[in-house]
Amino acid sequence: MKKLSIIVLTSLISLTSFGQEVDVKAKAILDKLSAKTKSYSTIKAEFQYSISNKSEGISEKQTGKIQLKGDHYFLSIQGQDIMSNGKGIWTVIKESEEIQINDMPDEDEEDYISPNNIFTLYEDGFKYKFVKEENGMQIINLYPKAAEEKSFHRIALYINKAKNQISKIKVYGKDGSIFTYTIKSFITNQAIPDSKFTFNKTKYPGYEIIDLRD
Question: How many domains does the chain fold into?
Answer without folding.
Answer: 1
